[in-house]
Each structure stands twice: as C-alpha cells, then as structure tokens.
Amino acid sequence: MAVFRSGLLVLTAPLASLAPRLAPILTSAAQLVNRTLYVHLQPGMSLEGAAQPQSSPVQATFEVLDFITNFYNGAEVHTHLDVRILLTNIRTKNAFLPFLPSPVQNLAHPPEVVLTDFQTLDGSQYNPVKQQLERYATSCYSCSPQLSSVLLNPDYGPGELPVGSLDVPLPSTTRPSSPVARSPKQPVRGYRSGAVGGTFDRLHNAHKVLLSVACILAQEQLVVGVADKDLLKSKLLPELLQPYTERVEHLSEFLVDIKPSLTYDIIPLLDPYGPAGSDPSLEFLVVSEETCRGGMAVNRFRLENDLEELALYQIQLLKDRNHKENEEDKVSSSSFRQRMLGNLLRPPYERPELPSCLYVIGLTGISGSGKSSIAQRLKGLGAFVIDSDQLGHRAYAPGGPAYQPVVEAFGTDILHKDGTINRKVLGSRVFGNKKQLKILTDIMWPIMAKLTREELDQAVAEGKHVCVIDAAMLLEAGWQNMVHEVWTVVIPETEAVRRIVERDGLSEAAAQSRLQSQMNGQQLVDQSHVVLSTLWEPHITQRQVEKAWALLQKRIHKTPSGL
C-alpha cells in the first residue's frame, strides 16, 4: 500500500451520520497519510453526477463546531498526523462578505492523495467517481501534480452505513457566554474582529480546536496573543518550550492554511489581559474551560476602562487518553514537554580523540537540581561515574595539585586549623564576586580536567563502556570536548533555592548568589542533548533515567565501533 506525506480528506456525508464513523475513517486515512491530513467539509455533495461538483458554503452551526472538536479529539489516537480542518467554505449566519467561489487555495503541504467517505453503490474504487474527486480537489486546493485518489470504505460493507449512524447528536463542546440554551442546528454568529491567546507550544489538537472556533467566528481580523517572557516563568519545564519565533512560525502556517481570508495579528502576550483588555475594536474572545476565569477577568478590566464586554466562547478541553500518573489528563503541551525528558534532542558530538571503547556523558545542572542522585541511578545501571566534587576534594587536599596555588591566591585565612582548605569560607569569597571566581576557576578547571582524563583511563581499564562525568560547571569549564553528549538536570529555580537552603544550611540570599554564579537552566538546556528532571517522586525520576539509558544503549550500538 502506498503511503503519502500529505493528503486531503473530503467528507460528504451529513455530520450527524459521520459521528460514529470518525474512528474508522481516521484509521483508514492514517494508514495512507503519514504527515499532514487536510480535511474539507462538504456535506451532501455527490461525486456521481455528470457535472463537476462545486464548493458551496457550509452554514456554521454549533453542530459544525462540535464536529470539528470531535474530529480533532479523534485524531489524538494518530500522533503522527498533523490534522488541519479547512474552514474556507464554512460561513457564519451574518458573514459580512458574500460567498464567492474562491480561486485555488495554496496549502503549505500540497496533498499527494485525495480521500473521501463518499461511497459508490457497490463500494468499488469506481474510476469516474475518483476522477470527479480529483477534479474537485484540484479546483479547490493546490495539489501535487501526481495526485492519487482513494474511496474510503472503512470497517463496514459497501454501500452500508453502520447501525445507528443516522442523526447521532455530537457531544456539546462549545458554549457561548449567553445563558440562552444552544442547540446543534443553531447558527453561529460572526464578528468582524476577535481574539484568542495561549502559549501554543508544540501546536497540538486542543490548540487547533481553540484556533478553529476563533477563525470561524472572525470574519475580517483575528488577534492571536502568544505568551512570552514573564508569562512563561510559571510553565512546567519552561526550558523545553519552543522559542517564541518558532511557535509563531508554526501557528502562522496553520492559520493561513485553514482560513487565508482573515488578517492575522500575532503578537507577544506579556500580561494576562493582552490586547483583549484594551483594544476597542475586538468583539469576542475564545477561551478554554481552564482559561474561562481569565476571560471574565478581561471583561471586568474592559468595563473598568469604559470598554464594551467581549462575547466569550468557551471550548471544552480535550482528554488525553495516554496521560501518565504525573501528567495532566487533558491534551497539554506540558505533558508533551514531560515526554521529551530522556529523549535525544540533538545529534551527539563526534569525539574521535576519546577512547573508542568508551562513550562519555557529561551530566550537569544548576546547584540543587539533583544531578548527583541521577548520577547514582546511572551508576546502578552500569555507568562508570566520575564525581567532580570528589575530584575537587582531592585537588584541594594538602599535597593535592590545587592546594598550594589556591592558598597563595586567597590567603591562609581560608584554612581550617588542621591546614585543610575550608571550602565554605572559600565559597563565600567567590560566589557573587566574578573577579574572585575567575581567579579560582583559572586554577581549578585545568587541574580538574587533567584528573578527569585520568579517571576516563581508569574507566577503560575496568572495561566500562559508558562513563558519566558529574560536573556542575561542565559547560562553563568548556568540557564539552571531553564528552559525546551533555545531559542536563532541570528544576525551577525556586525549588533549587529551597533544596540548597535545606541541604547546605545557607540563607536564601546565599543560595541565590550561588545560582547566579552558574549558567541558568535555559542556557544549559540550549547546549544539551538530553534533559532530565527530579521534580517528581523518586520512582518517576528512576523511570526517566531508565528510559534515557535504554535509548542511549540503542544509540551506542548503532555507532561504528559498537562499543
């Protein structure tokens, strides 16, 4: 069976009869398309007549909104598919412009195959019907010159509808703020201009529902606020968020694909109100169940500033069927970021100068991140661990390679009575003082690098295949040239401060000073191959480490040496 990168699914059956058939239709489509699946709604269209069918307007009703939500919800099973329901022909009851057959619409990923639920009487791949389907698809959208076509007949006999398929009401998913009860066939009102906001990290199906409803309501302009800067600080694993520009790029491509007739104003959202709180031209705001209170706060803010309230439309959250115990039960970017933990984020370094029989991991993280506990878990799985802190103790010890240079640089008042270096006193001298810290690191880092290389030789002598260098200052010291991969352990800075205070007996200010002398979590992650976190219960951390280790073993066995 041929598999295509992109496809167009033309749905011709009444929406109520499509509801129970969504799962088999999506399954059939997912077997043929492995990347982008565009969906075009044209209920009631026949492909068996002599005349070429034309695109006609579809009345936007709450049934249409519910169908779109349920379609995206059903697509959650097929994680490889980027589903995009096209909205060009869906019209609200008071559209401000007349419907005109639009010129061929360009799509970001021109379909290579067109699919349909339309059934011939005998259920066959009837050529005239397929030819009509291809002509219809190319009259509406830019398609591949070698366009193929398939009539889907999923999971039931030819020419038959599954039992109970007619007039099955779709679950209600969109609720206007008006207290008036809505009905499925009730037309949806259109507005000239409206707004929607979110983080839109790794654009997923719940985002697409929110955006699709907003695009249907808007007739001329849609303002899209994308959370940035301070609004990201409270997010889970903010270090793994896509950069603002990348989120906007994906968002823009999706919006222009689904409804190119709108003017999109995509702007950074820097406070909870954004333009929705101050723009007098806006008429509606689309929110989720989770952000509905924020929408009401926006309206209170508008009233306080003599602006009219916005019509609020609340969208139901999509349930995540595959969430784990430490993840939200809704479709969420936070869960997607959690699932990235332990995965390889970028290609490993090639290090021909390192021993060919040894694969070296540099393990780092801000102070208090829990990297030492990760190192011990990796040791339990078979890794040789080099503890840089222990090497530091060796270097600082009387007679050690760093002892005399450090005493000469910082004076004898950093010594205990027994002549050993008091590392707490030394730390208080350098943390928060860049000049003093540089004096210390200029002494220590070359010495530590030499000791680390000696330990790498010891790992080879013991027949180990994986070595982990546990070093808080791995990247600051420039030790990337000693490792194949950098693994970083992240936690929120507030949690790191709490742990440092509890573990080392320091004040919060001293803990903050220590963190400020290091790269922050974002800077570390930007140079990392694998990210882990100790934010949850120990067994969750263990599961992450085991996943990362298993994936590492697969990578190692694919290397030319095979270790």
Q: What brief labels describe this structure?
A:
563 residues, 6-stranded mixed β-sheet, 5-stranded parallel β-sheet, Rossmann fold, alpha/beta
Would you write up a description of this structure?
The protein is 36% helix and 17% strand. The protein is an alpha/beta fold and 563 residues long. Strands 8-13-12-9-10-11 form a 6-stranded mixed beta sheet, sandwiched between helices. Helix 3 packs antiparallel against helix 5 (205-217) and helix 14 packs across helix 15. The longest helix has 28 residues, at 434-461. Pathway: Cofactor biosynthesis; coenzyme A biosynthesis; CoA from (R)-pantothenate: step 5/5; Cofactor biosynthesis; coenzyme A biosynthesis; CoA from (R)-pantothenate: step 4/5.
Itemize the secondary structure elements and their pairings.
Elements (H helix, E strand, L loop, with lengths): L3 E8 L3 H4 L3 H11 E9 L16 E2 L2 H13 L7 E5 L3 E2 L21 E4 L10 H14 L7 E4 L22 E3 L14 E8 L6 H13 E10 L16 H15 L4 E7 L14 E5 L3 H13 L6 E5 L17 H8 L18 E7 L5 H10 L3 E4 H9 L6 H8 L12 H8 L3 H28 L4 E5 L14 E6 L2 H12 L3 H9 L4 H5 L4 E4 L4 H21 L5
> Remind me, CATH topology of the largest domain?
Rossmann fold
The 3D shape can be described as elongated
Broad structural category:
alpha/beta
Question: Low-confidence parts lasting 5 or more residues at pLDDT below 50?
Answer: 154-166
Q: What portion of residues belong to β-strands? A: 15-25%
The CATH first-level class of the largest domain comes to Alpha Beta
Helical proportion, percent range: 25-40%
Question: Mean pLDDT score, rounded?
Answer: 92
Proper CATH architecture of the largest domain:
3-Layer(aba) Sandwich
Span from first to last CA?
38 Å
Over the alpha carbons, how many angstroms does the gyration radius reach? 30 Å
DSSP, total strands: 18
Largest sheet features:
6 strands, mixed
Integer count of domains: 3
Enumerate the strands of the largest sheet in spatial order, edge to edge or round the barrel.
Answer: 8-13-12-9-10-11
Number of helices: 17
